Amino acid sequence: MKSINVKTYQPKLSEIAHAWHLVDAAGMTLGRLSSEVANLIRGKHKPTFVPHLDSGDHVVVINAEQIVVTGDRANQKMYRRHSNYPGGFREVVYKDLMATHPERIIENAVKGMVPRNRLGNAQLGKLHVYAGPSHPHGGQTPVPYVFNERQHGNRQAGQKES
């Protein structure tokens, strides 16, 4: 019996193209949006995905101030950090962080969904989050990313996907 000699395709770093996507976060649920953005910056949507290379795309998220959480998470969800100094523990409630720095909410959610190593840090560098509808990446011509019906989350009835 003859054996089949099929080799697994391994892309080279020079063969990987990094596209730019524009995601409108207005009315989207935080977790659903974050998981889709994490897949885009990791490159898991591409057929040439390999976990040891940075094959992901750049993602520009706009309207981060209009993100939605369900239930009473706006009052209950806490963001915690520590400065590694005695008494350096800090807690911030979701609604307070939304009032001051809404882009950090999406950045923290996506950060928890990428690998915790140098590759994950490089992939997080491709995430660009802005609170309002404007962004400085017009020169890269980001393509609007279209979510399918399952991923719409809690979009209000009056909002249309563009």
CATH architectural grouping of the domain at 18-69 and 95-149:
Alpha-Beta Complex
Strand content of the residues, in percent?
A: 15-25%
Low-pLDDT parts are none
The level-1 CATH class of the domain at 18-69 and 95-149: Alpha Beta
The CATH homology group name of the domain at 18-69 and 95-149: Ribosomal protein L13
Distance between the termini: 56 Å
Largest sheet: 4 strands, parallel
Topology:
Elements: E1 20-24, H1 30-42, E2 58-62, H2 73-76, E3 78-82, E4 89-93, H3 94-100, H4 102-111, H5 118-124, E5 127-129, E6 143-144
Parallel strand pairs: 1-2, 1-6, 2-5
Antiparallel strand pairs: 3-4
Overview of the molecule:
The chain has 162 residues and is of the alpha/beta class. The protein has a domain at 18-69 and 95-149: Ribosomal protein L13 (Ribosomal Protein L13p, Chain: A, Alpha-Beta Complex), CATH 3.90.1180. 25% of the residues lie in helices and 15% in strands. The strands form two sheets. The chain has a four-stranded parallel beta sheet with strand order 5-2-1-6, covered by helices on one side. Strands 3-4 form a two-stranded antiparallel ribbon. Helix 1 crosses helix 4. The relative contact order is 0.23.
